[in-house]
Fold this protein.
Amino acid sequence: MDKKSLNDKLVESDKTQKVDSERRDFLFMTTTGLALAGGAMAAWSMIDTMNPAKDVLALSSTEVDLSPIESGQSLTVMWRGKPIFIRHRTKDEIKQARNVLVDDLTHKSLDEERVKKPEWLVVVGVCTHLGCVPLGQKVGDEKGEFGGWFCPCHGSHYDTSGRIRKGPAPLNLDVPPYEFVSDEIIKIG
Amino acid sequence: MSTEKNELKGVTGWIDKRLPVFTFINHNLRDYPTPKNLSYFWNFGSLAGVTLVIMIVTGILLAMQYTANADLAFDSVERIMRDVNNGWLLRYIHMNGASMFFIVVYIHIFRGLYYGSFKAPREILWILGVLILLLMMATAFMGYVLPWGQMSFWGATVITNLFSAFPVIGDYIVTFLWGGFSVDNPTLTRFFVLHYLMPFLIVGVVALHIVALHQFGSNNPLGIDVKSEGDTIPFHPYYTVKDYFGLGVFLIIFFGLVFFAPNFLGHPDNYIPADPLVTPAHIVPEWYFLPFYAILRAVPDKLMGVILMFAAVMVLFVLPWLDTHKTRSAQFRPYYKQFFWLFFIDCLILGWVGSMPAEGIYVLISRIATGYYFLFFLVILPILSRYENTRTIPTSIAASVLSDKFVNEKTSTENI
């Protein structure tokens, strides 16, 4: 059986029956438009289920007591499933971080802009290259050429302000939103 | 319009020459010649297909949030309901989607039964369909276990215990199914894996079902073969638009349930966490299993009950050889038509008694209804196949349509 001729006949019969093509186009456009809009909304509501759920968002802030951290010591806490590096910096380390020409930096940023109190540095402990956790928190860890952190994955060196100084990482270690709730307690997030 | 004139060009043509996807779509969804007299009962195949896709999409998204562990499953489902963005919608669509899937498929099956769509040359098409039904039943049953509520747990216990009816090997089978000595964590994890796997098997069988369908094309309300191209119209736009309209109506009903009565078809006990020490007073399966459940309970013997229940589905496999009457459509078979409707009502009655306690008058009703169920297939159909005389059958689909039109015009002039 020849399907083409069947189709052609129908086209012909459409012509002979004086189809109101404007009306037909209007119906076609409105139907398609509505279907696409409805489909898009349905699709979005489904895709949105993969976004962070309410219980995940509820864990978006964490409080840390800084009082047990002696000068020169570091503490790692979890915030949103990521390590947060808190370093109680020595005077030496602060000086090191501030005695740098900003123009020499890959990602230009003043140490003053990266801390709320000079002795406390709070950064997200995730290398900005490909997401590894840099070394330098524990005693005996390699801290890199600039006394901050060293990422063992691809050799990025961070200074005592968490800024990238050498290696493939493009940006400084991120400073999370945080505030001092009291003198010795910070709330991250 | 035509493939010859519209020789595919450009990128489309380049791809099509190497992988004829566009030709395939054209043959199966566009030019595909379809009987011109299909009624809305022919919508249910495509509706089932759409529902299967909805179930798979929502199911995959649910599986991303669900935890298949006896200690965590119930809470993970509650988390989906409360914390996951639109999680309630996702779960209610999936839950009610199962019911809608069965409604659509049952109508599809009764349609096939009424119009003789299972008869030569469509026997394999029919058998593949029954296979899909079986896979659906297994999938639905295991899916119902996953929320790990009281009904999940005790439904799983009762249904798996069916296999203990088999002599000698029964207990070994049940222990094997459970992966232990009761329904527990190993049972849940394997049910989850199988529940995720089986829909994809269904997709495979559906593909075969469609290949078998397109071999001879759709049956039609007259049950007569397509004889010339005058009997057919192209699938697109005539049946795409008809399917599309039907889909709209279907979705209104489906989402009416989802938004306004999402738990109407469920059982409240399943919102109680599974407790292996307490059986709920009145266990009922989901509504789509009720007719089979009624057959199970109608028989006083454990093994026979189980055998009859399975036989109630299995008998569909051999239907093409039980009803061998040459005429397909019940429209032209006065006796078959009556027995068919009686059978339809019988199935509804079985569903109703399945939801009632197994005592008193309900037992009697379920026995009579079970009796007729098998009588219809095993006795009435073979007898009718031999002795039933048919009414006059139109010579062709086109002839029937034209004469109808003629008759209508005549009556309308008479009215004037």
In short: The mean pLDDT of chain A is 88. DSSP finds five helices and nine strands in chain A. Chain A touches chain B through 21 residues (CB under 8 Å).
